[in-house]
Amino acid sequence: MNIAICDDDSLELGRITSFIEAYRCERNASVAYKSFQSATELISQAEKRAFGLILLDIMMPGVDGMEAAKEIRIFDTGVKIVFLTSSPEFAVESYAVKAYDYILKPVPKDKLFSVLDAVIADEHIPLEGFTVKT
């Protein structure tokens, strides 16, 4: 799974990437990631490259995370977006962009791991048990 991580705070970005590295090792997961410090950079790359998951800060200078999510939804309706933010005030608005989850900072490692587990499980849904009516 390809993950995009976008946060203007380099310390937080480093923290999240270290959690993803730990997740990859502990779960032996096939996970690749790319880090971005601006939403504009993220949007540009997301148009060219498929990400399965975007971990996105909301409060950033210039284009904020919520606006970035709206832009990304125009060309990618399937990517899972998880907001990582220090404020609960945008939680309701996150439903408008069909956010997969909303995690308050500081991001707990176990919470991020459980979200990654859920996203990976969602991508491997067996087709057994589904009925297609024609």
> What's the overall average pLDDT, rounded?
90
Radius of gyration: 15 Å
Largest sheet: 5 strands, parallel
Number of strands: 5
Overall number of structural domains? 1
- The CATH class name reads Alpha Beta
Per CATH, the superfamily is Response regulator
Q: DSSP helix count?
A: 5
Distance between the termini: 32 Å
Unreliable stretches (pLDDT < 50, length at least 5) are 126-131
Secondary-structure-derived class: alpha/beta
Strand order of the largest sheet: 2-1-3-4-5
The SSE string, one letter per element, is EHEHEHEHEH
CATH architecture heading:
3-Layer(aba) Sandwich
Q: Please name the CATH topology.
A: Rossmann fold
The best one-word shape is: globular
Helix content: 40-55%
Please indicate the percent range of residues in DSSP E strands (runs of 2 or more).
15-25%
Can you describe this structure in just a few lines?
This protein is α/β, with parallel strands linked by helices and 134 residues long. The chain has helices at 10-27, 39-48, 65-75, 91-94, 109-123, and strands at 2-6, 32-36, 53-57, 80-85, 101-104.
